[in-house]
Design a protein that fits this description.
Layout (H helix, E strand, L loop, with lengths): L9 H14 L4 E5 L2 H9 L2 H4 L4 E5 L4 H4 L2 H11 L4 E5 L13 H6 L3 E4 L3 H10 L4 E8 L4 H14 L4 E8 L1 H10 L7 E5 H7 L5 H7 L3 E4 L3 H17 L4 E3 L11 H10 E8 L3 E10 L8 H5 L14 H5 L23 H4 L4 H8 L7 H4 L2
Parallel strand pairs: 1-2, 1-7, 3-4, 3-5, 5-6, 7-8, 8-9
Antiparallel strand pairs: 6-11, 10-11
Helix pairs in contact: 1-12, 2-17, 7-8, 8-13
GO molecular function, one term: 4 iron, 4 sulfur cluster binding
Pfam family, one: HypD
InterPro entries: Hyd_form_HypD, HypD_1, HypD_2_sf
């Protein structure tokens, strides 16, 4: 398949691996920010192929994983109410709250529906004027434009029964928090290509300058990632602090200007708590005053809800790169995809789920990983 198969060529991958290993004079510590990149690295055995040249730290790049526990509980509270149709993408239904998940609510009779677009939820609202319809808007900058368009569309249609439960978080503030931490070990970042497709690369230049850490924007296929790593290792070995774009077929400096205008219209920046990490200033979005009537937290009065994380779950250390998933005492025993303690084991992009699914296979060869 064009634009996929050519970026999964094991022969070309081996050339890049050899170049990286020859160039590296030490083990460089690199963080990939995106959970999709984490899964590609683990699934294809890239971390094992690179051996002692690179240590990958798996950052907080899975939006499902960093959605705060109290936000999950708010969703559960709303979904449990009579006269509510609660809509979400499928990856949120098994994320555990403090006591249950959305599948449990649906099993007890709650009207919880999986949709494939936020605009599906606005159609459901139009078709059910006697019901309150709520869409769970979760994600980084990548999914935010479509979620923003749902309230724009609802306003144009004059819908008075559609609401958005907003849990959007932003990548650059999270990177700032990681780099500012006294426990930070990151020497270089692989930037999330899909986020930069929307937002461009301009937000990352100030991070490079402030913290003296190179950032290379990368895609998600094996060759994309290896090329991003190759460029990072070159910069690190040469002592250069630069921002580079290794994903030019999808990312431009300016990004998607029309999408950014929609985001500026619908959302305003706010402080956000990140699951397992804590409060990060100015790291999220909430609805702007122009669209406040669509705010599900205000409509249902759930904004006050606060809960405590399980002491047994170490997803916070995983998300901050302080612990590998398989170093957690609960990994693969009391915490599995069937009985998860935290979102990092549930999400299709979670680091714990990636290790559980792929690392137990002992994949060390790219061609075997893709078989």
């Amino acid at each position: 398949m064009k634009y996929l198969d050519e970026f999964r060529d094991p022969v070309a991958a081996r050339v890049l691996v050899d170049q990286i290993k020859r160039r590296a004079t030490r083990t460089w510590t690199i963080m990939e920010v995106c959970g999709g990149q984490t899964h590609s690295i683990i699934r294809n055995g890239i971390d094992q192929l690179l051996g002692d040249a690179v240590e990958f730290i798996h950052g907080p790049g899975c939006p499902v994983c960093v959605t705060p526990l109290e936000m999950i509980d708010r969703a559960l509270e709303i979904a449990s109410r009579d006269n509510v149709i609660f809509c979400s993408f499928g990856d949120m239904l098994r994320v555990p709250g403090s006591k249950q998940d959305l599948f449990s609510v649906r099993a007890r009779g709650g009207d919880v529906r999986i949709v494939y677009s936020p605009l599906d939820a606005t159609q459901i609202a139009a078709d059910n004027p006697d019901k309150d319809v709520v869409f769970f808007g979760v994600g980084f900058e990548t999914t935010a434009p479509a979620n923003a368009m749902s309230v724009v569309h609802a306003k144009r249609l004059g819908l008075e029964n559609f609401y958005l439960l907003v849990s959007h978080v932003l990548v650059p503030p999270a990177m700032t928090a990681i780099l500012s931490s006294p426990t930070n070990r990151v020497q270089g970042f692989l930037g999330a290509g899909h986020v930069c497709t929307v937002m461009g690369t301009s937000e990352y230049g100030p991070l490079v300058e402030k913290f003296g850490v190179p950032i290379v924007v990368s895609g998600f296929e094996p060759l994309d990632l290896l090329e991003g790593v190759r460029q990072l290792v070159d910069l690190l070995e040469d002592g250069k602090v630069e921002l580079r774009n290794a994903y030019p077929r999808a990312v431009s400096d300016a990004g998607n200007v029309v999408a950014q205008q929609t985001l500026d219209d619908v959302f305003v920046v706010t402080d956000r708590p990140w699951r397992g990490i804590g409060m990060i200033p100015k790291s999220g979005w909430t609805l702007s005053p122009r669209y406040a009537e669509f705010d599900a937290e205000k409509k249902f009065g759930v904004g006050h809800m606060q809960v405590q994380e399980s002491a047994e779950c170490h997803s916070g250390e995983v998300l901050q790169g302080l612990m590998k998933p398989n170093e957690c005492p609960a990994f693969g025993t009391s915490c599995t995809p069937r009985s998860p303690l935290g979102a990092t084991m549930v999400s299709s992009e979670g680091a714990c789920a990636a290790y559980y699914q792929f690392r137990r296979l002992g994949v060390t060869d790219l061609s075997a990983a893709n078989a």
